[in-house]
Design goal:
This protein is 31% helix and 32% strand. It is of the alpha/beta class. It binds 1-O-pyrophosphono-5-O-phosphono-alpha-D-ribofuranose and uracil. Keywords: Allosteric enzyme, Glycosyltransferase, GTP-binding, Magnesium, Nucleotide-binding, Transferase.
């Protein structure tokens, strides 16, 4: 498994505002979108492309277009939805599938409550969006789900990750082709399974408490 942790002052600046408990939901949503677009630049480094020939006003030349089958972007509901616009801005031809997961806050086990994905993911490159990688239960379940449907490789974009979650995913995926792209690798989890220093509950901060 490859792990890429962002190291860029623009990302650190936006993350600082995102972490600040005074940041209101509209700003939190805007910053989440901007951060995803920056992280997606790294996450799509190995996106499959096909060579094409084009005519410029001056001459013919070769370039590339996003290859077939199209990449699949999978936000994990609810908080991952806040990352979708930022991702498809960079990858407008991608298809989008949805996975609804909620973490049981006592056991930290993920419960899958919705799924809307193509039945066959053979040969597909998948990009999973989830702002928080805490214990790794939710992301681990999503990755297993996608490989069980035949996905070729999975890249997960998370705004924040905890070392415990990264270790769990590393052990779980073995030699399957998985890449994690993180805005920050934080210090640890607290006793409630929250990332420290973290940003709190990403879904609540994006959408308000339910
Ligand atoms: C949050 C977050 C992740 C998960 C991370 O979702 O968006 O999906 O927790 O925790 P884990 O790594 O320990 O599984 P939550 O279950 O709170 O649902 P929400 O997105 O609807 O708020
Ligand atoms: N889910 C969140 O939204 N935040 C955390 O810190 C951990 C799990």
């Amino acid at each position: 498994m490859r792990v890429h942790v962002a190291d860029h002052p623009l990302i650190t600046h936006k993350l600082t505002v995102l972490r600040d408990q005074r940041t209101p939901s509209p700003v939190f949503r805007q910053l989440t979108e901007e951060l995803v677009t920056l992280l997606a630049y790294e996450a799509t480094r190995n996106v499959r492309v096909e060579e094409i020939e084009i005519q410029t006003p001056v001459t013919t030349t070769t370039g590339v277009k996003i290859g077939e089958p199209r990449p699949l972007v999978v936000p994990i509901l609810r908080a991952g939805l806040g990352m979708l616009d930022g991702m498809v801005k960079l990858l407008p031809t991608a298809e989008v599938g949805f996975l609804g997961m909620a973490r049981d806050e006592e056991t930290f086990e993920p419960v899958t409550y919705a799924e809307r994905l193509p039945a066959d993911l053979s040969d597909r490159q998948c990009f999973v969006l989830d702002p928080m990688l805490a214990t790794g239960g939710s992301l681990g379940a999503a990755i297993d789900f996608l490989f069980a449907r035949g996905a070729q490789d999975v890249t997960a974009i998370c705004i924040l990750g905890a070392p415990e979650g990264v270790a769990k995913i590393r052990e779980q995926v073995g030699d399957r082709d998985v890449t994690l792209v993180l805005g920050s690798l934080d210090e640890r989890l607290n006793e409630k399974g929250y990332i420290v220093p973290g940003l709190g509950d990403a879904g609540d901060r994006l959408y308000g408490t339910v």
